[in-house]
Amino acid sequence: MDVTTSVAELSLVGPIYLKRLEKLEIENIEELLHHVPHRYLDFSLTSDIGRAQLGETLTVRGQIVSMKNLYTKTGKKIQVAEVSDATGIILAVWFNQPFLVKTLYPGLKVALAGKIEWFGRKRALISPEYEKVFKGRAAVHTGRIIPIYPETSGVSSKWIRGRVKEAFQKVIQNLSEFLPDDILKSLGLPGLKDAIDSVHFPKNLSDAEAGRKRLAFNELLFLQLKNVWRKKDWEKNQATHKLKIQEEPLDKFISSLPFEFTPSQKRSVGEILQDLERGVPMNRLLEGDVGSGKTVVATTAAFASFLNGYQTVFMAPTQILAQQHYETLGKLLDKYKVRISLVISESVKSDLGKTDIFVGTHALIHQKLDFDTEGGDSNVALVVIDEQHRFGVEQRAHLVKKVGRKKIVPHVLTMTATPIPRSVALTFYGDLDLSTLKELPQGRKKITTWVVPPVKREAAYGWIEEKIKKEGIQVFIICPLIEESEKETMQTVAAATKLFLDVKKAFKPLSVGLLHGRQKAKEKNEVLKGFKEKKIHVLVSTPVVEVGIDVANATIMLVEAAERFGLAQLHQLRGRVGRGEKKSYCLLISESKSKKAISRLAAMTKSISGFELAEIDLKLRGPGEVFGTKQSGFPELKIASWQDFSLIRESKKVAEEAFNNPQKFNLLHTYLKEKQIIAN
Asked: Could you write out the three-class secondary structure of 126-170?
């Protein structure tokens, strides 16, 4: 048996348990051994029964004298055992486990672990861990530090402990170390066998922590190695077109804009233009807060491509955002005779040749354009991918084309408005060069944010109605998040429709519109057109369509059940207002009674950036919350934490060294290829 063996080979693992273990992402022995405990119970103190003191957490060993079910007046069953050794008798008490009467019978030798408390007037172990004692067999559930694992319905920590012990004993001889000794020594990490042993069978808690640290390091190292391999692989490509940066017309374009670039916009444009001059294709991530001016930075790069006589492709995740980019690019490049085409399903392929910038969803772009350099649209020098996390790494692979022995690929600039904490961005996007827009452009007004209790909803609606009538402004009302999903479910649509009807009633006779992801493109565009033309006063929307709606006259955003959203997502939603001259507001309605949830939302009322909010959510709720939906392509770390900053840094260093010094890391390379973590 080795680590790739299915857990089905272990005792007590039949088809039902296999299905249950799948929920814990455990299919083979390796995944079982890497299913790390989330806490431990210290039962290492052992005592004779007669010396056991009230309040102590310990293990006792003895023989069952009697075992019976007692019934309370309410019909509950209590299981009470008398257990004795040479020094005395103690009770063991369990609740609603009547089967124990057959499992633990008089005369059986047992070990019991738990806390000594009163049961009536007698000392008792309440709901203790138990196991049968056999000569020559080591204890698994008592008399030591006991791991408590992440569980699922029908799979208890006790059951997992038994399987882990069996698996570890069967594969221990086949567990091979793959990191050099000097690396382990310099980082103070145990060997692989010791780490797995310490995590599941620790002698003390510091041993357990050392084992967890090693396994966490492995997890981060594999992530970093994938990045290094991808980055080095990308650098073997040749840029479709090496651009000549024409400073004079570019400076003229930048100075003609109706606003001044922020320092980080200037720095990012400089980094991008430098990349465009190289023979190696650019592979850069531009991350910036909502409204930080990413589009104009990307437009500057597209203009540089245009000045060289080449084409640019803008890819967006939704048709709404594609339409938005098309309009923005049109305004910014209006004076320069740049031909821009919105690629829609009706576009005729022959018309696209006369275009300088294509804008569309990634699906349509790939359908309508052929990036093949041999006879295809070889004039494309730059590809801009918006909302990077919705595309993932695989999308970029489609742009790489082989010409003879060479791989030729356009320059790629990916953008995201999701504020990603730097530690996470550098780890997950380690194969990309990073440019960050820190400041908001001048003139962007602060959005006043309030957390509103449900009792004040009616008053809030009244205040909003007054604002619409007096100032002619428009309003977004966001439907609560029903469940984490990239695609909208019918349940979400039903909730949005119900909210729409309630809002319509509350704001009668004002005009109310509804927008959700399940509408046909034509229907969506009609609603958006009505909102942009001020025919719709209040737009009820689901959160899936939060990107790409830019209406300067919309100055109020109201979010229902705001506690269900991550702070970064709320910040993105809020970024839909505050785009014009008028004062803007964001109202977060929360039904939650939890102090933690309310104080988390209170962070939104302070004037801090999306990056700071993302850091808060990272600490409080983990990366799943920072990035919104689980399907958005960010890995959930099973062992490591995104807050392990020093471990993240060290794993990156070792990954670089492993690539540059394959001789030294020979065993690691073999392991990675076997596990298909990297390509052969």
From this structure: ECCEEEECCCCCCCCCCCCEEEECCCECCECHHHHHHHHHHHHHH
